[in-house]
Amino acid sequence: MRKIKEFVIEKLILLSGLASIFFVILIFLFLLKEGLALFKITSPFDFLFGKSWYPISEPPQLGILPLILGSLLVTVGAAVISVPIGVGCAVYIAEVAPLKIREVLKAGIELLAAIPSVVLGFIGMVTLVPLVKNVFHLPTGLTALSGSIMLAFMAMPTIVSIAEDALYSVPKTYKEGAFALGATHWQTIWRVMLPAASSGILAAVMLGIGRVIGETMAVMMITGNAAVIPHSILVPVRTLTATIAAEMGEAVVGSEHYFALFAIGIVLFVISFAINVTADLCLHKKQS
Amino acid sequence: MFDPVKIKAQHVDFFYGNQQALKDISMDIDVGRVTAIIGPSGCGKSTFIRLLNRMNDLVAHTVLRGHIYLEGQDIFSPAVDPVEIRRRVGMVFQKPNPFPKSIFENIAYGLEVNGYRDRDVIEERVVMSLKKAALWEEVKERLRDSALKLSGGQQQRLCIARCLAVAPEVLLFDEPCASLDPISTAKIEELILELKKDYTIAIVTHNMQQAARVSDRTAFFLLGELVEMGETQHIFTAPKDKRTEAYITGRFG
Prior knowledge:
The complex is a heterodimer.
Chain A: H1 2-36, H2 44-49, E1 53-54, E2 61-62, H3 65-96, H4 99-114, H5 117-135, H6 144-168, H7 172-180, H8 185-196, H9 198-214, H10 217-222, H11 240-247, H12 256-287
Antiparallel strand pairs in A: 1-2
Chain B: E1 5-16, E2 19-30, E3 34-38, H1 45-51, E4 62-70, E5 73-74, H2 82-88, E6 89-92, H3 103-113, H4 119-132, H5 136-139, H6 152-165, E7 170-174, H7 182-195, E8 200-204, H8 208-214, E9 217-222, E10 225-231, H9 232-237, H10 242-248
Parallel strand pairs in B: 3-8, 3-9, 6-7, 7-8
Antiparallel strand pairs in B: 1-2, 1-4, 4-5, 9-10
Helix pairs in contact in B: 3-4, 3-6, 4-6, 6-7
């Protein structure tokens, strides 16, 4: 009886393990099937580097360069904001903060991660967007900059918690060695701790960016959604993700537009995959 | 007047949380001599030596009572900068802890944090320290290689060189040979005898033969107390305290 129980449980666990892999493969195949169908009609080059996205004009123009640049601009902006603050915060938590403040901060960071992105987008819409509009005297505050700032908040928890982990796992002996040479705390952090934790911090940054590039709701609400090639950070942009979310509902199934949205999905998949692999490589480099 | 006492500890009590690690320790470390601190594991000898350059500042929830003077100056007085104390009192740890950088950078780092900017001067001092630490011949061809590629014994001598480069007055060794093989140990001991010409040295060891070989004076710690201290020769041939005698003859510990 006990043996049968063991057997059943073992197989059930195996099944759940296989299920996740199975679904990933299924999703990937579906994405490929629907997305690649586009390239019978439009060449991959025209798709990736076409300058205009007018999916419902006749004939439809399906160039996603403005969307790629939009995503890139918002992501780079978010990285520029969140990486220094995030790493700084991690250093503070790991090295400087007294025990009590550390606990409070860590809890706060986790709470930040728990805020649904639509809520962040909503808050950004009513507070940040008017602020950006007034500060820069713009016709609209729905800009790439607003999106970057909001997304920076979303990347921060990932960056802080993983970078803090990396700093925390630097052997204490390095720190002692540096202190024993008469290094100040800051000299120790800057010249010994950060370099020793660099691969982990890089992984943290990559994962944070991965989160930003895949984010949809908040950017859709506050970047203005204009599918034009952005010439500055103070203009409305549209990202790859927002395009799919906004247009999938109205695209006719089986139309070029529909296939193009799936092809965008493939592009996103490739980008996220590359970022995750890079992060993984960084983490493994640390371990070996 | 010449003061033979470099470091003076007076009635030092030390607590980790509620646990008392040191009880009323008073002892002197003489200038230009090697002072060994021996005792069984957990007797407080490492705790004590780590107080001498304020290394225990890094440990949370500790309490210190009593005073430690470096050339008459109380190193725990609020006016004293611990960074300055650590520059004057260098330390070599139980496990070799080179930074994950090149051999050259390991030594240059200490110089740079102490304000050296001139590359020529830095280079010169790196070479000098490696020579002093008897490591130069073994590494002169590969200064740019990672320090982590060196053997344990070489790493430990690199840590000594790193320490010497910033020209401390006192060198503290916290069981420097605990993780080394006998040949590397012999090299480190030779080095300590060589270094005592220029530095005041304190060494913690659980190896009594080592204490007998390298030190001029020996202190015996037991359960956080200083049982006996005196000339090494006397401690090892005619200890006054029964407990010291029991320990050095190997009856416990």
